[in-house]
Amino acid sequence: MISVTIKKGYDLNIEGKPSSDSEDLPKPEYVAVLPEKIPFIIPRLSAEKGDKVKIGSVLFEDKRHPEVKFLSPGGGEITDMEFGPRRIVKAIVIRLDETESFETFDSISESGLEKIGREELLQILLGRGVWQFIRELPFRDIARHDKIPPAIFVTSDDGEPFQPDPAVYLKGKKELFEFGIRILSKLAKTVHVVGAVRRPATTEELDGLITHTCKGPYPAGDAGVMIYHTKTASSENRSWYICAQDVLTIAQSLKSGVYSVERVMVLAGSASIERKHIRTRAGVPLEHLVRGRVKTGDVRYVVGGIFRGYTAPKESYMGFYETSLTLLPESREPQPFGFLSPGFTKPTYFRTFLSALSRSDLAMDCNLHGDVRACINCGSCAQVCPVDILPQFAFKCVLADEVEEFLEQGLLDCAECGLCTYLCPSKIEVCKILRDAKAKYYKEQG
Ligand code: SF4
Ligand code: SF4
What is the pLDDT of residue 201? Predict the structure, then answer.
C-alpha cells in the first residue's frame, strides 16, 4: 500500500456537518438533467419537449463524441427544455409517471464479465450511459475511450466539507463495489483505490481493496493530488479517476440491465435544519431535497461542495455528477467597522480574527467582507496549494496570455480545489481563472 501525507491544503472548520443517518426520500414529481453543468460536452438532443421517455432512454449525446450518450434519469414526459444564450441546453425536465417504464439491457453476471473483452466492455459502458462517470486528468473531462490509461484512481473522500460518506453509500454493497472494481480493471493496467481521508476506520466495505492512503488536509485524497505526489512518469498525468459512488452506479447498471438512478446525497450547512444523508435519485429537484429542512431567511444553495461547487437557484436540480447540497445564510448586510470586531465566530484562515485560536466548528455565511482588489502578493494561496503551484504568479501569466509561462507554473497540475480563491484576501477568483485557462488550453489542443 502506498501512503501519502500532504502538508499543504486546508481544513475548513465550519458548522453544518451532516450526520451519518440516512433517510429514503419519496419519489419526486420531476427530475432533470443539466447538460450545461457537464464540463466540456456539446449536447446534441435526441429528444424534444413533449416526448415520452423511459428510464434509460437517450436524451442527448456529446456532439464531439456521439458515442457518449446521456440517458434519462426518469420515466415520464419531457415537460421543459431550458435554453440559455446561443441555445446552450441548460436543463431537460421530465415529469415522472406514477409507474415509470425503463429501457432494459442484457444483464452481466460475475462469470459473464470474465468473458467480455475490453473493446466489448467499452461499447457496453458507452451504450448504457455510464461511461461518462470515468474522467481523465489533468482536464477532468470525460475519459477518452480510445486510449488505455496508465491507471484509474477510485476516490472516496478528499476532505471537501459535506460530501457523502462512503461508509453510508457503500454500506452493504461490498460485493457490488468489488464487481465495479473488476469492471474498471478491464479498462486499465492498474486500478488504485484511495482510502477515505476522514473516516478510514468506518469504511469496512473498502477493507482489502485500498491500495493508497492519503493523510492531510483538504484536498488530500483527490486523484490529481495523489498523482502529483506519487507519479514516477509524466504519462501518469493522463490517469483516469472515478468517485466510489459512481463505481456502484456502473456496477449496478451492468448487473441489473437497467440504468441505475439511485444516489446517496447529503444535505448540510448551517442554514439547513436537518443535516443528513438522503437516499434519492439522480437529477432530483433541490426543493424536494430540502423540503421542510431549510431555515427561514435569505439562503444560498451550493451544489457540489463549498470549494468546488456552484451556487444554484432553489428551483434547480442536482447535476449529473453532484451529490452534495449545502445551505448557507446569505448575509448581504454590510458590517460597518467589522475590522474592529474580535471575530470570535468567523471562520478564518488568517489570524485576523480571534476565532483563528480555535479549531471548533463555526457558522459560515456568504458575506465576502469586501470587493475584488489587486493582488497584494501575500503568498497565502501558495501556502495552501496542494500541488505546489504559485497561484499568484500562475493567474497573472494567464491574464497576460503567456501560455508557455503558465504551463511552466504548473497550471496542468492544478487540482481545481478552490482553496486559493477561498482564502485570497483580495477576493480574486484565482481558481476560476486557472480552471478557465486550463479549459481554453484543452479546447485549443483539440
Ligand atoms: S492553484 Fe489549483 S490546486 Fe493550487 S490552491 Fe488553487 S485551485 Fe487548488
Ligand atoms: S492570496 Fe490573493 S492576494 Fe494573496 S498572493 Fe494569492 S492571489 Fe495575491
Answer: 47
